[in-house]
Amino acid sequence: MTQSKPILEMKNITKYFPGVIALDNVDFSLQKGEIHALMGENGAGKSTLIKILTGVYHRDGGDVFFEGQPLNLKGPHEAPLHGISTVYQEVNLIPGLTVAENIFLGRQPKNLLGISWNTLNEGARKALARLDVDIDVTKPLASYSIAIQQMTAIARALDIHARLLVLDEPTSSLDAKECNKLFQILERLKSEGLAILFITHFIDQVYAISDVITVLRNGKLVGKWPASELSKMELVAAMMGKEIEKIRKVEAEKKVQITTEKQEEKASSEGSAKTLRVHKLGKKGVLHPIDLELKQGEIVGLAGLLGSGRTEFAELLFALVRQDSGTLELNGENVQFLSPHDAISAGFGFCPEDRKVQGVIDGLTVEENIILALQSKRGIFKPISKKERQALAHKYIKKLGIKTPSAQQIVRNLSGGNQQKVIVSRWLASDPTFLILDEPTRGIDVNAKVELQNIIFDLKHAGLSILFISSELSEVVQTSDRIAVLRDRKKIAELIESEKTEEKIMKLIAEGVEE
C-alpha cells in the first residue's frame, strides 16, 4: 500500500433525495495499488457515493479529484474516458446481445465493411480468458447463468484499461472457486498499480482481499482503517452503530434463544398436519428428479455450489418452470401447479434470487409492491382497501426496517438491500403456508440479516413451512432443521439436525457422494 498522493479524493460529498440526506459531508480517498473496501448497512450511502463518483448522480456539495485534477462528470459515459470503470451490483448489460457484443459495447472494432466481427469475438475470448472463463462468446448473454453474466461484466470493465476499478458486489453471483480466481486477478491488477474500490456484504471477503476499510452509516463517514488493524467485531460494531460488548451480548442471547427454540420444535414437530411431499420432481436438462419432504413449522435448507440446482428446484416447485417428471402431494392430496398463480392460491410464496428481474416492479411504490401477492391471491374482484394497504405497508416497513422516506416512494429509488426487504414483505403480507426463500439475505446488511433470521424463526413457530436457499453455508446450517445437499443438479444427501455442519456439507459436495 503506497503512501503517495491519492489517485482519488472525494471531499465533503453531500447528496439529497426527497426527504432523505443520502450523503452528509463524506470524505473518501483511494491510493494507487490499493484494494479499498467500502462498507456499511443498506442505506448507508455506499451506492450513492459510487454513483456520484461515476457520474450517475450529480453531487449537491463537495469536490472530487482524480489523479490530482478536479473531476466533474456530465454523465456515466464520461467515467471510462477518465480511466474509471465500474461493475455494479446488478448486471447492467444487454441480455439479447452476444457476450462479445456486450464486452465491446460502444467501442466495437471496425474495418472497411463496418464492425470487425472476428476481431470483436477474438478480443472477447481473450478478455474472458483472463478470468479463466471459456465459453462461446457468439451466444446471447441471456443464455448463460447469472454468474457468467457477472464475469462478462467484470471482463468488460477490465478490458477498458482502467486506472480505477469500482466493484459493487462483484461476487454476489460467484461460487467459491470463481471468487478465489477473481481475487487472484485483483491481486495481480493491484500489483500493477490499479486502484480498486470494493463493495461487498461478505465480511470474510473484505479481510481476504482488502488493504483498507472505510465505513459509512446513515449517510455519514464513520471511519477509515487499515484492514489489519480493524477486527471483524469492530467492523460490525462500526457498521451497526453499536458497542462491541452489546453485540457480543446479543449474539450470546440469540444462540441461547435458537437452542431453546429447537428444543421446543422437536417436541411439537411430530404429527404435523400440513406436509408437502415432492416425489421425483425434475425437468430434463434442468434438474435430475428430486425427492423432498417439508413439514409444517419446519425449515428445510438447500445447500450446494452455484449451478447445483437449488434455484432450479425452487422454480419448478413454484411452477415458474414447468416440470416434466414428478408429483406434489400437499396435505395428503396430489396437486399440480400449471402456473405460479396456482401455487400462490395453494398458499405458496416465492422470494426469487434475482430481485431486479423477477422481484420488484421498479416503477411502483413500496406500498404497491408489498400488496401485490396478497391482491393476486384474493383476485381482481376483491380489491384491498386503501386503509388495509397503508396498514400492511406500515407494518412491514417497520418490521423489516425498510429505509424509505414513505410507503409512497418509488421502489427503484431504494437501495438493493431495501428492495430485497420489500420482496420479503410482499410474501409475508400474503400469509403463505409454504414460503420459498432463494437467497433472501443477498445484498442485505449484517443487522438486517439478524432481523430477517428472527422473522423466519417467528414464521416457523407460527406454523409456516420454509424452503431456505443461501450460498452462505453458515446461514443454511444455522437456520435450517434439515438440509438437502445438491451437486451437479442432483440431490446427493439429506442431513438432520445432529448431522448438519459446514464441514460435512463441503465434504459431501467435494466428494459427490449420492444418497
Question: Would you mind describing this structure in some detail?
Answer:
The chain is an alpha/beta fold and 515 residues long. Helices cover 37% and strands 24% of the residues. The longest helix is centred in the middle third of the chain and has 25 residues, at 244-268. It is globular. The termini are far apart. The relative contact order is 0.10. The model is unreliable at 245-272 (pLDDT under 50).
Chain-wise SSE layout:
Blueprint: E1 8-17, E2 20-30, E3 35-39, H1 46-53, E4 61-66, E5 69-70, E6 84-87, H2 99-103, E7 110-111, E8 114-115, H3 117-129, H4 146-159, E9 164-168, H5 176-191, E10 195-199, H6 203-209, E11 212-217, E12 220-226, H7 232-240, H8 244-268, E13 275-283, E14 287-295, E15 299-303, H9 310-317, E16 325-330, E17 333-335, H10 340-345, E18 348-351, H11 355-359, H12 366-378, H13 386-399, H14 416-429, E19 434-438, H15 446-461, E20 465-469, H16 473-479, E21 482-487, E22 490-495, H17 502-511
Parallel strand pairs: 3-10, 3-11, 6-9, 9-10, 15-20, 15-21, 18-19, 19-20
Antiparallel strand pairs: 1-2, 1-4, 4-5, 7-8, 11-12, 13-14, 13-16, 16-17, 21-22
Helix pairs in contact: 12-13, 12-14, 13-14
